[in-house]
């Protein structure tokens, strides 16, 4: 990855990192299914407005829309529901640690299905170092609940695995000559149809009508910034950097969350924050490979 891809990865981590905080607010009044359905529906309207305003060509083949459906299930419906449901039972810090297993899953899944992204020891070592760094960054207090609520923890790990499969599956869109923004819009549209249908069957509209403006603002923020804008960046990153590199965002999300808390909320950085960020940076350097190669040449 070059400077542009690393910048996109950092911005994406900031957009997705904020969603954990806003999910906690929304869970005070809404069910997980309602949160995900409304979030994705609003994001769909926003991103399709961008597609239509830009006059981007839309695919007409059945295979393209079927691919959008599968991508929506793997990248939205399954992981969103699993993470939000898991956060009802476990703290967001532990959820972030478990979700940071996604790069390890991605290295393995991409190595099996993609010829140009083979499994290598630097990739596995770097992803593992990143996961350890996230655990150090979040702190031992989050790991205290690791043995409790096993089903919720497995749900978040399942979301991480789903993200890994989604990253590999999305590699087909550049080969189909589909613009990254159109790919993001297509998968959001298909996933919103699935989620709205599920919400109509299993949820009540009463909780939405009687909820506070704070919850609506939290979900709207997630929809516009953490979903619509984030997926535009994500699909551009997938097209230019590959599945394994794009999923590294899960390692940077806790870092940006800590830094945003320091800048915006006046929180103080502790020793474990610096150590955790250092280990994460080391893991990213191992995966990238160039710092190690420069060191060996010297």
Q: What this model shows, in words?
A:
With 298 residues, this protein is mainly alpha-helical. Helices cover 81% and strands 0% of the residues. It has 16 helices and no strands. Helix 3 runs antiparallel to helix 8. The longest helix has 29 residues, at 213-241.
Can you describe this structure in just a few lines?
The protein is built from 16 helices and no strands. The chain is an all-alpha fold and 298 residues long. α1 packs across α14 (249-265) and α2 (32-54) runs antiparallel to α3.
Give the key terms.
single chain; 298 residues; 81% helix; 0% strand; globular
Roughly how many Å is the radius of gyration?
19 Å
Helix vs. strand class: mainly alpha
What ranges have pLDDT less than 50 throughout 5 or more consecutive residues? Answer: none
Average pLDDT number: 81
Q: In DSSP terms, counting alpha (H) and pi (I) runs of 4 or more, how many helices?
A: 16
**Overall body shape:** globular
Distance between the termini: 22 Å
Number of strands: 0
- Pattern of helices and strands: HHHHHHHHHHHHHHHH
Give the helix level as a range of percent.
over 70%
Architecture blueprint of SSEs:
Elements: H1 3-26, H2 32-54, H3 62-86, H4 92-99, H5 102-113, H6 121-138, H7 140-143, H8 150-169, H9 172-175, H10 180-202, H11 206-209, H12 213-241, H13 243-246, H14 249-265, H15 271-288, H16 290-297
Helix pairs in contact: 1-12, 1-14, 2-3, 2-10, 2-12, 3-8, 3-10, 4-6, 4-8, 5-6, 5-8, 6-14, 6-15, 10-12, 14-15
């Amino acid at each position: 990855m070059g400077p542009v891809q690393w910048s996109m990865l950092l911005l994406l981590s900031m957009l997705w990192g904020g969603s954990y905080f806003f999910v906690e607010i929304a869970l005070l009044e809404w069910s997980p299914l309602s949160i995900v359905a409304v979030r994705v529906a609003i994001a769909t309207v926003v991103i399709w407005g961008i597609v239509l305003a830009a006059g981007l060509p839309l695919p007409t083949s059945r295979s393209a829309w079927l691919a959008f459906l599968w991508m929506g299930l793997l990248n939205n419906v399954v992981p969103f529901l699993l993470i939000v449901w898991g956060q009802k039972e476990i703290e967001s810090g532990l959820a972030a640690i478990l979700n940071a297993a996604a790069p390890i899953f991605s290295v393995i899944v991409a190595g099996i299905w993609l010829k140009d992204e083979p499994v290598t020891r630097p990739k596995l070592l770097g992803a593992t170092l990143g996961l350890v760094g996230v655990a150090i960054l979040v702190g031992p207090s989050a790991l205290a609940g690791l043995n409790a609520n096993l089903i919720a923890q497995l749900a978040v790990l399942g979301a991480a695995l789903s993200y890994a499969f989604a990253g590999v599956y999305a590699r087909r869109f550049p080969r189909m000559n589909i613009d990254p923004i159109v790919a993001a819009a297509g998968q959001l549209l298909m996933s919103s149809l699935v989620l709205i249908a599920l919400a109509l069957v299993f949820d009540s509209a009463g909780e939405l009508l009687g909820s506070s403006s704070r919850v609506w603002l939290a979900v709207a923020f997630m929809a516009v910034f953490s979903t619509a804008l984030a997926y535009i960046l994500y699909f551009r990153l997938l097209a230019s950097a590959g599945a394994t590199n794009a999923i590294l965002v899960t390692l940077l999300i806790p870092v940006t969350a800590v830094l945003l808390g320091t800048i915006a909320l006046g929180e103080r950085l502790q020793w474990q924050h610096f150590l955790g960020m250092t280990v994460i940076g080391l893991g990213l350097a191992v995966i990238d490979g160039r710092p190690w190669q420069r060191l060996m040449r010297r």
